[in-house]
Queue: 2 jobs
Job 1
Amino acid sequence: MNIADLVQTRRTTKAFDPARKLTADQVAQIETLLRFAPSSTNAQPWHFVIASTEEGKARLADTFAGAHGYNEPKIRNASHVVVLCARQALTDDHLAQVLAQEQADGRFADDAARAGQHAGRAHFVNLHRFERRDAQHWADKQVYIALGFLLLGAAALGVDACPIEGFDQGAVDAALGLREKGLSSAVVVALGFSAASDFNARLPKSRLPLNEVITRI
Ligand SMILES: Cc1cc2nc3c(=O)[nH]c(=O)nc-3n(C[C@H](O)[C@H](O)[C@H](O)COP(=O)(O)O)c2cc1C
């Protein structure tokens, strides 16, 4: 795979073919890439809701009616829709769960290594909780790393995608019962296959010139 070719041929899909669905293998690979996305201090401050049933997609799509109606058909016609959620708080319980998982996965040679990992993570978490007071924003930034993984990974799998920020976060949170679970929706990605009516498929890519966006020192 040539990564430069891939990024120049992947594109945002503006209309999905409702008849075409992801294969079980594609879905499994996408779930794996979400799970394995990197995050600062491995805090994994996220959760991903994947809608693929008609009922699930309709529940989401109904929240797009009105102000975000331009995105509604993408939700209804996509094969799968991923709601990337951030944890509202990095609780001590969550940090303990991450540490226990790292231990179970064999990351620590001894108790000192385990304590060191916890102290390092707690330092950054507390920095964002109490000094910068931007823990929610920090969590959102980690979620957007997963977004990048998802968009590139989907392209590598030959799956079309539309990243979506044009949605009512409060309505999506309510429709999915996210707040009760300590989560809030950050960004949505519709996945599937481009329809004949997808105007973006016929448009050339456009980006600022290389020297505008990259400085070599
Ligand atoms: C975070 C994010 C949010 C976006 N939100 C929407 C959206 O709500 N609706 C939409 O049609 N496209 C949306 N886009 C698509 C962008 O317009 C598109 O990625 C950009 O124009 C570059 O085009 P390309 O993805 O085809 O390379 C979004 C993209 C990103 C990365």
Job 2
Amino acid sequence: MSRKSDKYESFVDHPRYGRRPHLTGRDPSPAEPGIHLHWNATTYAEVIGRYQLVTGKRWPYGNANAYWKETRRIPNTAVPADLSRQSPATVAVTHYFDLERECRDCRRPFIFFALEQKFWYEQLGFPLESDCVRCFECRRKQQGLAQQREVYELLFHVRDKTDQQTLDMADACLNLIEHKVFSSRQTERVRMLLNSIPVDSETRQEKRYLELIDRVLEIEERG
Ligand SMILES: [Zn+2]
């Protein structure tokens, strides 16, 4: 395969699974009896076909194609599931497939890998309803922000903060502003925090304190 025709080159990299499909040579069809794929790996036409196969009746729900999330199952990437390890579901999934996805946050393409799904649903105990809508980078960023938020909220309730706790809180608040979780007007709060450190405290000479001040100024200059 030439690099030019390799569309996966532009996919977001995953530190464990990479950015390209993992070909296993397995390609079970959801039309076969005993094969159950995750709803997010099945096309609308396949769901209807399956319904008609199993019940012998016509699909009674009209055309919901517009509401059906597009699936881009990558052929020959199936990994068999261990049903005994999945959380109980109405319909267990017998095979996972590598799926092409578009990240909800950065809009870049990425693969939700069959092996990653196996890990989610069989090792981590995630329910089969849980789905992956963000690329690895955006997920990591989001986890980082969730952590910052937690730090901020914890310290918010600490009455007599040490200087270092005040700096931690100011730092968390700035991270949340910089990633647009908080509005830029919240720099006022960061200023109050930094001003609460006594003027004669050595903390005011620390590099970290000065860097926090710089970040406040930078955000306020940008408006
Ligand atoms: Zn992303």
